[in-house]
Give the backbone structure.
Amino acid sequence: MAITIPADMEQAFQSVADETGQPLPELIREALARFLDDLEERQDVVEARQILEEYRRNPGTFTPLDDVLREAGFTRDELQ
């Protein structure tokens, strides 16, 4: 895949690459990986908020943690 980025962004990446001694392509891959990780974390937060709101609306539809652990053969102490 090839992408085109604005000249000022390329210069910024090149400056960081020069300062750190990291190859430019590696630096850009790392930046993209961090972006994707951050995006996934934000999506996880959104999903967690949706689940919490659903729980608040109808808590009876959720299984208590202790029940889930017991069914899986664990205790809270074993998870620590």
User: Anything to note?
Assistant: The chain has four helices and no strands.
